Amino acid sequence: MAPTSRLLTLLSLLQARRDWPGSVLASRLGISDRTVRRDIDRLREMGYRISSTLGPDGGYRLDAGEELPPLLFDDDQALAVAIALRTAPSLGAGIGEAAARALGTVRQVMPSRLRHRLDALEVTTVTRPGAAASTEVPLDVLVTLAQAIRDRHTLRFDYGDGDDRPPRRAEPHHLVTSDGRWYLVAWDLDRDDWRTYRVDRIRPRIPHGPTFSPRTVPGGDVDAFVSARFRGGDATWPCRGTVLLHLPARDVRPFAGDGTVTEVDAHRCTLEAGSWSWEALAAAFGRFEAPMEVVGPPELSAAFASLAERLARVAVAGPAS
User: Fold this and answer.
1) Less packed terminus of the chain by CB within 10 Å, N or C?
2) What's the CA gap between 24 and 36, in Å, rounded?
3) 43 and 11 in contact (C-beta within 8 Å)?
4) Based on C-alpha coordinates, what's the Rg of the chain?
């Protein structure tokens, strides 16, 4: 391995976990302990703060520095960063202009082979029909909320277009982004319930309130909880069932909505989903127009039978006169 490539690999390893024994680094890179020490010294000369750790093996730790040192990326890392910067404006996080400048900086120093690959990737962000328009959120608000979540500080904030009401008080738990909008999942102390707030309407008040002990989001799954709130229901559908579809998982996932697709083999998968009634759930499964088997529960099997009888009567009756 060439010295430059080896330094890139060494830096990637140091970034992957907190502590690395020197002997393990030497084994991963296929070099001697002495060469590892020399390469560590070269990284230190470039501005990376790497401390030595004590112990039987001795090792190294990459620490945060006071200034940003030169960044070293392998090809995949460089493309990943560039693609993320190119799509950053769609997040609505108020970083579009900064992301564009950062992308220009990264692209300028890219080798031509990577620049050509990046330039071939043109990305257009399209809003789904019926989805709300994206809104831009000030970056400082996102950072303030993220720090409150990390430090478990109660938030005090105004919400909406401004009124004379006292500030809201909530225990912040998660930041969520969906379709270009940001949301805060929090426990509202005044309403004694979980709430999902639009971040673009939050105006934090400083200082924050006291610290709190974190609660568990209903169901323990933030994605499922927020998805349920978006569709106007509780944390779970009243009727949930699972079928075995004779279709590849890759063909089902794009149309599964908030259902869960699990691959069984190359030609079959299971789909777990919910709806407001058992017959509505059976009809939703039927839209895949493929052989299927009910995994459970029995109510879903009965719903398929009832739905089949009703549709058969419609077919026998023929067109309305």
Assistant:
1) C
2) 10
3) yes
4) 27
